[in-house]
Backbone:
């Protein structure tokens, strides 16, 4: 082995974020301009987001829509109501980041000509293998 | 055999392990997979350092 590196995941690419949400089984909307989130009683909430999982599509009986809004620095922040934060918690966001990172690494590897050899689940971790042509 | 093994944990932290790469080829391959991310830890292993040492000796 010659080298290794560790990196933390920042959500900054819409394409990878969408791939992550799809991999986790969520139906979602994407909007160039942030759209209003809808709450428990069908009321509009003050928050807006570019990527929205409508509460009916969360699969976790969320009371409010869950969203991701693009910030001025280009990264995405999750918008989760206090009421839903026990379901959409740090562990949930961690899984989103995990799938985001998987999508990012697979695309980066393929784009640079490496051979993607597959994905293996190892407990809570995911292992990706690439070969060299 | 050159292989890249990436392990992504449940918080999205990636460990990128380059196997069988040497010298600057290792740096280039690592950059390919970092995809613009800055590593919190980056460590070259013995093979890399041996190769660089051999190159330095050859130049002398």
Residues:
């Amino acid at each position: 082995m010659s080298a290794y590196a560790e990196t933390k995941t920042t959500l900054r690419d819409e394409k990878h974020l969408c791939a992550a949400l799809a991999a986790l089984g969520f139906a979602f909307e994407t909007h160039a301009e942030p759209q209003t989130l809808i709450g428990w009683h069908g009321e509009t909430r003050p928050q807006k987001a570019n990527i929205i999982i409508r509460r009916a599509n969360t699969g976790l009986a969320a009371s409010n829509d869950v969203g991701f809004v693009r910030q001025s620095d280009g990264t995405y922040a999750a918008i989760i109501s206090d009421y839903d934060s026990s379901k959409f918690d740090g562990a949930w966001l961690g899984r989103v980041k995990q799938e985001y990172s998987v999508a990012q690494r697979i695309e980066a590897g393929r784009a640079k000509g490496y051979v993607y050899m597959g994905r293996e689940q190892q407990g809570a971790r995911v292992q990706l293998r690439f070969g060299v042509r | 055999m050159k292989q890249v093994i990436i392990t992504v944990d449940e918080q999205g932290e990636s460990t990128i392990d380059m196997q069988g790469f040497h010298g600057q080829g290792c740096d280039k391959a690592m950059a390919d997979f970092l995809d613009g991310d800055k590593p919190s830890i980056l460590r070259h292993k013995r093979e890399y350092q041996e190769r660089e040492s051999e190159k330095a000796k050859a130049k002398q």
